[in-house]
Amino acid sequence: MEQTELLEHLREVCHPGRGNKDIVSLGMVQNIETEGNTLRVTLGFPKHRDPLTEYLVGATRACLVRHLPEGVNGEVRAVVVEESEGGVGNDAKGRSKGKGNIADLDFSQLENVRHIIGIASGKGGVGKSTVAVNLACALARLGYKVGLADADVYGPSVPVMTGTEDMAPGAVQEGPRELIVPLEKFGVKWMSVGYFAEKGQALIWRGPMACNALKQMILQVKWGELDFLLIDMPPGTGDIHISLLQDIPVNGAVIVTTPQKVALADVEKGVNMFRNPNINRPIFGIVENMAWFTPREHPDEKYYIFGRDGGIEMAKELDVELLGQVPLVQGIRECGDSGEPAALGSGPDAVAFAQIADKLAATVE
Questions:
Q1: Of the four, 118, 157, 158, 216, which is 20 to 30 A from 197 by CA?
Q2: How much is the pTM?
Q3: Residues of the chain whose pLDDT is less than 50?
Q4: Residues 105, 287: Cα–Cα separation, whole Å
Q5: Buried b / exposed e across 137-151, counting CB within 10 Å, b at 16+?
């Protein structure tokens, strides 16, 4: 494939922080090389750390993978040029990839955040993101200053659940650094990698790239003063979780589960990950989601579809607080799809989230 054709394909990758101009027009494509069966594209960035570096690297790689002929692997090398003679518009080839990496970022944007809490689950499908979004809204309704970072880089759902999928965070220059300005809605500050991906676009990121993107979504955001910063973590207990917990000052975690045995079996794995000596973070409590089904027409009726009191028993077994049980009602799904979190309403689900928020705040405080 000719370089001119590759450049045309790369015009699909746009920089949300610069008027959605493509990376070719912005002069960010510094070099294109083919070595055997491998294509390497070098991206150049300004001398200060671009808050969307990891997103642009991932989006560029995804673009190459979509367009390259079968059998050719696209590999993107991101180069952050700190020297004044480097940067966008100059040849960045050959400069060190070690400059400007995530290790150079500081924690200044978290100085005014009182509590950082990870919302985690041992497996997917238990409604972790639903709990995270509604818990954030419930805390805000109690008068707390709240932010939520959607750290599920492979399946970011916060934009849809909050009705912010057509919005984009801004950026502000503070000294030599450019910071991401989170979106605000329902009294909560929201940040998600989903804001920087095209609709339906798969983020093809290897583990280290995903870890760095995660840290950027937390460390390089202008959070301001917050009582609670919730981090909606990816499901499971993999390398991304360990890297995040070792590098971000998370105070503790809330584990989300359902009453099903298969879900409860993974709760213990999640709890043990946080209790591992290399992680050593407290578990503030367990939330049992989909605890029972309540028909809208008969709010007093309970049907234990997925089992009964599994979360209660697991909390006792692991010596962890049970923060509460959330019923399975049609409104939760409808509210999530419509971008209006159920915690903003007055139904049994909203009451459950309010009680959980109150209990979490009391536990942490």
A1: 118
A2: 0.77
A3: 78-103
A4: 33
A5: bbbbbeebbbbbbbb
